[in-house]
Amino acid sequence: MVHFLTMHQRVVDELGRRIVGGAWEPGDPLPVEDTLAAEIGVSRGVLREAVKALVAKGMLHVRPRTGTRVLPPEQWNHLDRDVLRWKQAGDATALLRDTGELRRIVEPEAARLAAGRAGSDDVRALYDALAAMEAAAATPGRSGYVEADIAFHRALLDASDNRLLGSLGRAVGIALEHSFLVSTQTPGAVEASLPRHRAIVEAVEARDPAAATAAVLAIIDAAEQEIAQSPGLPSDVA
Predict the structure, then answer these.
(1) Domain 91-229 = CATH 3.30.200.20
(2) What is the mean pLDDT of the chain?
(3) pTM over 0.70
(4) Arch. (CATH architecture) of 7-75
């Protein structure tokens, strides 16, 4: 399916990519409104709305008389889907590192909680995602495998019965997609991953927090090794 960007989305995307790509340094002012609008080929009104969107993402700050200035990355909303997408395009290596560290901090505890709290619907969602992973792994080209893998990890966070963790899983979908697309290019990664995911579901279903935690850590450890060996690893890693 082809997705068409509105004019507003296109301008937000253009400015966001420039900021992430370092076209303007933190503290730098954006070019004069008329100049920037003419360069991008939009009206001043469209540009202003795009700037407001980037202010909401923590990337720009508008102040009377001093104009619109770029904020440092520490103030950006790095869980925003657009920011994640721009980082994937502009600094893929850092996004892989950040995603791996976030998973190591969050997922083992989510699995531990899920083993104590998951209901029958949660367990069914995990098994359904695992079945989708297995089906995709058996098809030529493995179409849909990454999507099913993301669904599995979202279901695990949902199964923790912690609403903040569930929301986090939905927020970092793009980061997980980027990580999984790289790791699954390593030969043998998909085949090895399936029994590890099954071990998580079985531990959650058996209400065994220690086993669930260990199973998740085994997946994260393997993913780090697979990313390091992947032919899809960004060229700036070495």
Answers:
(1) no
(2) 93
(3) yes
(4) Orthogonal Bundle (1.10)
